Amino acid sequence: MAKKRKNEKFVISESQMISALMEHSTDSIYFKDLKSRFVLINKALAERLGIKDPNEAVGKTDFDFFSEEHAKQAYDDEQNIIKTGKPIVDIEEKETWHEKEDRWVSTIKMPFYAKKGKIVGTFGISRDITDRKKAEEKIVYLSFHDGLTGLYNRAYFDEELNRLDTERQLPITIVMGDLNGLKLINDVYGHSKGDMLLRNIANILKGSFRKEDITSRWGGDEFISILPKTSEKDARSIIKRIKALCEEKSTTEMPISISLGASTKKSSSKNIYDILKEAENKMYKSKIT
């Protein structure tokens, strides 16, 4: 008799724990039937779905809340779980919504069994990891980009130069530039103005080169670009455009001027680093003339 009362007490405590989990957990918890319709969701998921009462979700599917692309992927995953009995553990998925910002979640989905061992639906828990994913993306971005100008950094340039140095990309042109007057701007107006000048020239370069070109900050006031499948003639047109934009964007307080040099690899027998050196020499020659 005492043992029975003990078991009853345990069952009640288990029920209370489940109730507390559904009410207070910050993770999204949900049960779905064999057709991937919501049977039960917790309060946290209701808030994410934009509904006040969790019961409002009963009978609805992901297609009622998420984008069609995300809802279809979720449906396919759940139907596969029902078919195979195999859970999906710790997957990271991007939730896309109809009218809300995309979110990232870490998800566990598993089959939900009736007492006799028959699968009657799915059960899932999702944890929002958007902040972590954004932090990871920022780390990746900064590892390949210059923090001040937003251009690629030298490490990324070196990787791309090796990757693009193939016969298929010929002719490959390298354009190298040295920003004029940066030291003077720093000395007269301060480094904040110098930083502004660097960002201005970076924006001009972004606007002048094509999407497939690789433009990097090479050093303090030096910039370099790889232009796959670009002839000398096309490179001269791009340089002319850069010069025109510099003149257009210049002010009395902040003149924008950059010395540029270009060299083109036309044959696979040429060493790409010799081409780079030629572009650099032409840049310095341009600077002193």
From TrEMBL:
Pfam families: GGDEF (PF00990), PAS_4 (PF08448)
Database matches in SMART domains: GGDEF, PAS
GGDEF domain residues: 170-289
Domain PAC per the UniProt entry, residue ranges: 89-141
Entry-linked InterPro entries: Biofilm_reg_signaling, GGDEF_dom, Nucleotide_cyclase, PAS, PAS-assoc_C, PAS-like_dom_sf, PAS_4, Rev_trsase/Diguanyl_cyclase
Coiled coil start-end: none
Name of the featured protein: GGDEF domain-containing protein
Annotated source species: marine sediment metagenome
